[in-house]
Amino acid sequence: MNTTTTHTIFNLIILDESGSMESIKAPTLSGFNEVVQTIKGVSGQFPEQLHTVTLVTFNSLGIQTRLDNQPADQLMELTDDLFRPDAGTPLYDAMGRSLMRMEWLTEKETNYTVLVSILTDGEENASREFTGRQIQAMVERLKQHNWSFTYMGANQDAQKTASSLSITQSITFQTNEASMKDLFAQERKGRTAFYDKRSKGETVQSAESSYFIQP
Q: Which InterPro entries does this chain map to (predicted)?
């Protein structure tokens, strides 16, 4: 008799679609799609885990939900026509809206983890609904309920920006193809290690430790 309890992992990816991302559009698409393949592949490694993916892209023209809590086996790759960088960077609004919706989706869950991944090549410059202080408070509150956050940033001090939002796992990348390739390789290693640690019963805080520093 199989007594394994399904543990749902909600993967929320918040991806900058502002104008400056145009120069790294191709490696961003490639890297994201490799992450999708990683998530699809973990079902065999960790059969007790059920993975879903929500992808939110953002710029000052709009905040778009490209994938809405999609089961891993139904994931489609992000294509050129679905990712069109333009305009400014409303990071706080994108985070605020996305986190509130994910909190609503998980409010009745009891055996779950939320892994939030944020990638941006610029600092906040266009939010109208949320402030940095509000996002920081939201992150601090959610981290008490099996939520984990990672921050990937370019053209900024990513560690400082992440810390200001109470995010401890961060990495800085350069806006070129080689750096992006290395970034996504580290992200995939960290993601797989995170899933592995959670499957072994480690806490979210323990599982996210050294996320971007994996052998």
A: vWFA_dom_sf
Set out the domains of the chain in order of their start, with CATH numbers: 7-207 (3.40.50.410)
Confidence (pTM): 0.97
- From 212, 112, 102, 113, select the one nearest 168 (Cα to Cα): 212
- Tokens standing for 197? 């640690």
CA-to-CA dists, residue 77 to 37, 47, 167, angstroms: 9, 23, 27
d(CA 52, CA 178): 29
Each residue's pLDDT tens digit, 10-20: 999 999 999 99
Q: 127 by DSSP, 3-state: which?
A: coil
**C-alpha span between 112 and 104 (Å, rounded):** 13
